[in-house]
Amino acid sequence: MDNAGYCSESFNSLQSGTSDEDMVEIAGATLDFSSTDDVPPLDRDYGSGGSYGAGDGPNGVPKLMDLLDEPVPGVGTYEDFNTIDWVREKSKDRDRHREIATKSKESTWALMKSISDAFSGWLLMLLVGLMSGALAGGIDISAHWMTDLKEGVCLNGFWFNHEHCCWNSNETTFQERDKCPQWKSWAELIVGTNNGPFAYIMNYLMYVCWALLFSFLAVSLVRAFAPYACGSGIPEIKTILSGFIIRGYLGKWTLMIKTITLVLAVSSGLSLGKEGPLVHVACCCGNILCHLFTKYRRNEAKRREVSYYFPLKTLWRSFFAALVAAFTLRSINPFGNSRLVLFYVEFHSPWHLLELIPFVLLGIFGGIWGAFFIRANIAWCRRRKTTRLGHYPVLEVLVVTAVTALLAFPNSYTRMSTSELISELFNDCGLLDSSQLCNYTNVSITKSTSDALPDRPAGHEVYTALWQLSLALVFKMLITVVTFGMKVPSGLFIPSMAVGAIAGRLLGVGMEQLAYYHHDWVIFRGWCSPGADCITPGLYAMVGATACLGGVTRMTVSLVVIMFELTGGLEYIVPLMAATMTSKWVADALGREGIYEAHIRLNGYPFLESKEEFSHKTLAMDVMRPRRSDPPLSVITQDGMSVEEVESLIAETSYSGFPVVVSHESQRLVGFVQRRDLVISIENARQRQEGVVSASRIFFTEYTPPQPPNSPPPLKLRGIMDLSPFTVTDHTAMDIVVDIFRKLGLRQCLVTHNGRLLGIITKKDILKHMAQMANRDPDSILFN
């Protein structure tokens, strides 16, 4: 077979990938519409001579083979770092539904397959819920145990954490309830005593060594086996849900390594959380389990139903998956309190209307902190990307871990795990609390029907705790900036909540003492009488945590729901809402982007933010390519090009697709064909169809014209062409075009003028234009 002139690009070479957004880098040929020639019809009807049966056609010409009569492996799939075609995927799914519905009426077996197909979505949600809940419970239990391992070990069994080790001990005291003979610190095991400077140094040294070991294992596993397992994962998940493909990001290796290294990273004592990475873990579970079901495995849009649209059936299935995950988590009982919430609170006194003033102040603090954190963290991550710092991820993690451990150990509030710190800050002091924060001066307490204690003067240990918390606040604010974004799994929920909880507790204790010593002031008169429980510092900590988390993530409604889920405090929705809205307003005034949107822009992901308004009065013709000084538009004609000419066009360009037109002169649009589908179909034709050579003609028409005698067999590729590409006119306003791209998830949009092809707009063109309008570098949106 004569394969001369066949382009070097094959199906396998496509794995290197071309940028999806460099779809057609045309730049503006000026089209001459003054021609008076008749425009040929889109599909010439050549009558019955256009197709033949078995054997040779007339004049001895070999018969035409429609390659799409049978599915060609690879056609309709996508390369890495490309955007899916939502319209095509939804069309494929509708065709599949129609085929199943039609066949279900023909036989009982087909009806059973139809019922199985309808039930598969619910079965998938059941499996995702079970798998996600089990992994979440296992991660929490393991992280708790390994965190305690830095301070000591249980003699009854090394697999017990500190709390479980002393659970059934009868030798604990009220003042030192966390000490029991079964639990030994490293100093007790090595030097025989837990008192004295040498024992303190030994515990200090072991704490730092364990932290370094855990962090080294975490970053080494990520670097060696799954580089995508680092970070939070939420920016990438948002981009993937919008239709972008990152192969391996939701794969089994990423899931396995992220689960293991998340436990190690949290246990190392770094200022990070596990809630964000757990979103990545759950998405990995969903993606892996999707491959068990054909309709999800073969359709990229079906795996992303919660992105551009959220149909009612997806809402119910999400609810069902959450129910299964909650049931699984409750069965595991990772928190040891038979509750599903991480920070269960039970405050004994209601909040007063005038307390909204300090709650709003906490919201202002949260907004300022959120804006500061985003700017500082993005500046540090950009420095990591553009300097030699990014070449040494292991060294960076070890240095930050060493600094964190050395500074955290002397302060009891930074030495404990961040979740334990938040839980203590949320706590409402009672008679049985032995916490340093609850060591108030005893006053005469009258009998009351409620469990609330009256406001009391702070003791010496309370003031000591406040100083330690102030130092912990500064430490957490600074160290979190450099920790988030390192090459280990790192979430931001818990560190942000810790900063806000510390600030809230400090303000709460201050308000409590102010109310105790100055209850006759105007702001306290009428609702805060002597001997009453007026101020609840734990509530202030909870509000502060909400405010700071809102300032960093810019969440509002969902954040209030999350805080309710974490604490179970339904009656404190109004303070949480007030702090959340205030923090968002303040943070938006200082910078419009949340932390995840900022990281999406930093990494150059092709993500169109739905919240970002486009208010500029530009037209499609201002954004489309080709531009006036650019080469002409690269197109394929529907019946005038040979295999060699198409292969040369593919070899000479890096575009991901080509418009199909009637002819170069008319520029009448017929459809759009993907580069990948072209390459695969031509290669498949050379292997399966005898006689296909470089001179063979390629047809995208419905009927094929008669071929000259002894000419090579043609290729009919109409089946791989999109016959209804989305088009706009050149005078369409860009705000409408941007909305179309956002709501339909388009890869590209063709621009026409009086029905003739004029140019093309890709998602990258949209992002570049929006960056240019915002006075940013348009090239900053390139995927890195």
Automatic annotation (TrEMBL):
The chain crosses the membrane at residues 119-139, 204-229, 250-272, 278-294, 315-336, 356-378, 390-409, 465-485, 492-511, 539-564. SUPFAM superfamilies: CBS-domain pair (SSF54631), Clc chloride channel (SSF81340). SMART domains: CBS. Pfam families: CBS, Voltage_CLC. It is found in: Endosome membrane; Membrane. InterPro entries: CBS_dom, CBS_dom_sf, Cl-channel_core, ClC. Its main location: membrane. Keywords: Antiport, ATP-binding, CBS domain, Chloride, Endosome, Ion transport, Membrane, Nucleotide-binding, Repeat, Transmembrane, Transmembrane helix, Transport. Belongs to the chloride channel (TC 2.A.49) family. PANTHER family: CHLORIDE CHANNEL PROTEIN, H(+)_CL(-) EXCHANGE TRANSPORTER 5. This is Chloride channel protein. It comes from Anabarilius grahami (Kanglang fish).
